[in-house]
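Saturday, quiet lab. Running sequence design on the structure tokens for the scaffold JK sent over.
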């Protein structure tokens, strides 16, 4: 701002009063937000998307407006928007805008809003004050934070369509009456929000009784309902089948592992269970050994088949262990291979190679210990004897994080063979999640539902620069905010050294009638300096002789 004021004071270029006010109004404002998120995605048009767009063009104007709104304001892919428009229709943006504004004003992130609307598009027809607000207020009254409410409702949007007095409150009261604690009730809802959609007297109460009848302690039932409430939503007959299956596996109903096993079995189909058993069998484990491991640690069967395969491959082929190691210590399969097992095994190998530990050293203990304990007892302890250890350990952790970023970029739809893939990795790696989300929120303030749509330069710029750019493009130049989504390279340009000076250069020939209002200003902004001087400054030297001198003074001042 000070640079801009100094430039305007010192410049000999004759500015109109409106031009000076226009420049002074380009104030950079900062913003912040605390919501978590990973999030934005570019969806290149598939053949089905192209067909959807052609179909849209043949619809009625009103129908076409709805489809267009769902794409631009809610982040729908074209084919999804066309399909959803069969169930919702509006003539103007007033109604859906009021719903989106309601969610934004109540702490929902842009991605949460998009998920809500995609899962339940009819929400756009809701009355925010009569239908949505009472539910938000109810959750607040029970001690849920704004962030928790947005996560709960994003996970279970149908809760917003259920009757508060007849469904949500009775379900909440049932849980609280059994769990004897508001904190545990809230925890259960956070773990499985859809439990509020059930009639708990019909769906949950009989299953609680079934556990009581076979001697499961009340404390274990409470723990299961608090942490795995979804296990209780099975039909009474199916729940009893699960209980019998778990008993046949040898679990003791009086032990907590019995309750955890019920949660694990309920959470997967029979075919999924059998596939995981087959993966373990490939590594030489028998069904009896698998059940023994599952009996010690039910998470043994909860992890994915791919993770089971990766863990077993590392232990057997890389570490040279027998596959039965996971039967003796099944907790190992629940650890992160890339972010815990591999980095810690590297530390082990270095210490072993230097003779600082013996081969029979307790590596298992090293793998399951907390991070602070590892750093103190194994990394910093041998800092003098192995000074490279800390650096290698951190690099290994960073590498695992880097691999996660690569996977995230691939999920966003970027092509690994293009330069844009690498630029996107840089954009994600160069900032924390909170910084990313703050920048997203700046774009959201300017009406962009998807800011990260082309080159990721628009996310590399600082929040202040993003705000200044958007303010200038929208309020001073009169452009739509979507101009950034269409060509995000503009955000990387200097506001003071390029955009504002060139915009004033544009105004001079415009006021003299040398160019028309629909003149290609955007091309003027992004063109190289030499091209700009030749085609926009020197070209009008006779009609506007002050342009060249003014522009040179601007360059000197900004430097």
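Result came back. Writing it out in full:
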């Amino acid at each position: 701002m000070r640079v801009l004021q100094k430039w305007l004071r010192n410049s000999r270029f004759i500015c109109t009063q409106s031009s000076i006010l226009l420049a002074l109004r380009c104030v950079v404002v900062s913003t912040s937000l605390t919501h978590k998120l990973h999030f934005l995605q570019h969806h290149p048009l598939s053949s089905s998307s192209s067909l959807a767009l052609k179909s849209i063009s043949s619809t009625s104007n009103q129908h076409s407006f709805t489809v267009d709104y769902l794409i631009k304001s809610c982040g729908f892919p074209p084919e999804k928007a066309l399909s959803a428009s069969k169930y919702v229709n509006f003539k103007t943006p007033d109604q859906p805008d009021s719903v989106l504004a309601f969610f934004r004003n109540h702490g929902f992130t842009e991605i949460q809003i998009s998920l809500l609307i995609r899962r339940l598009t009819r929400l756009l027809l809701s009355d925010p004050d009569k239908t949505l607000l009472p539910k938000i207020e109810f959750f607040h009254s029970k001690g849920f934070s704004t962030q928790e409410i947005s996560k709960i409702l994003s996970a279970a949007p149908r809760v917003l369509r259920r009757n508060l007095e007849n469904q949500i409150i009775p379900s909440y009261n049932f849980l609280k009456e059994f769990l004897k604690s508001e904190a545990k009730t809230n925890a259960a809802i956070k773990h499985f929000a859809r439990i509020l959609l059930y009639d708990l007297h019909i769906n949950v109460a009989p299953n609680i009784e079934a556990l009581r009848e076979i001697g499961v302690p009340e404390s274990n039932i409470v723990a299961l309902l608090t942490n795995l409430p979804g296990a209780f939503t099975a039909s009474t007959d199916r729940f009893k089948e699960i209980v019998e299956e778990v008993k046949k596996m040898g679990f003791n109903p009086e032990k907590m592992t019995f309750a955890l096993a019920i949660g694990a079995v309920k959470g997967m189909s029979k075919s999924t269970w059998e596939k995981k058993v087959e993966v373990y069998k490939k590594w030489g484990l028998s069904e009896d050994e698998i059940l023994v491991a599952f009996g010690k640690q039910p998470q043994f069967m909860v992890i994915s088949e791919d993770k089971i395969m990766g863990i077993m491959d590392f232990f057997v082929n890389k570490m040279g262990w027998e596959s039965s190691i996971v039967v003796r210590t099944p907790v190992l399969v629940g650890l992160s291979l890339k972010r815990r097992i591999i980095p810690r095994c590297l530390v082990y190998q270095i210490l072993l190679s230097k003779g600082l530990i013996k081969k029979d050293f307790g590596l298992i203990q090293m793998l399951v210990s907390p991070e602070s304990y590892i750093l103190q007892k194994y990394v910093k302890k041998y800092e003098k004897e192995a000074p490279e250890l800390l650096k290698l350990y951190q690099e290994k952790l960073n590498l695992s994080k880097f691999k996660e970023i690569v996977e995230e970029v691939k999920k966003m739809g970027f092509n690994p063979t293009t330069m844009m893939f690498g630029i996107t990795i840089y954009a994600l790696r160069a900032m924390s999640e909170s910084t990313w989300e703050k920048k997203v929120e700046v774009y959201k303030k300017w009406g962009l539902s998807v800011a990260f749509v082309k080159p990721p330069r628009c996310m590399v710029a600082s929040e202040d620069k993003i705000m200044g750019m958007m303010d200038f493009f929208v309020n001073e130049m009169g452009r739509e905010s979507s101009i950034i989504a269409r060509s995000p390279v503009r955000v990387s340009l200097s506001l003071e050294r390029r955009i504002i000076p060139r915009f004033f250069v544009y105004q001079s020939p415009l006021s003299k009638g040398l160019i028309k209002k629909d003149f290609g200003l955007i091309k003027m902004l992004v063109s190289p300096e030499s091209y700009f001087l030749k085609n926009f400054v020197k070209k009008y030297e006779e009609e506007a002789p002050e342009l060249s001198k003014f522009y040179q003074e601007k360059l000197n001042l900004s430097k």
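Notes for JK: The chain has a mean pLDDT of 76. Residues 335-411 form one domain. Ask whether to fix the surface positions before the next round.
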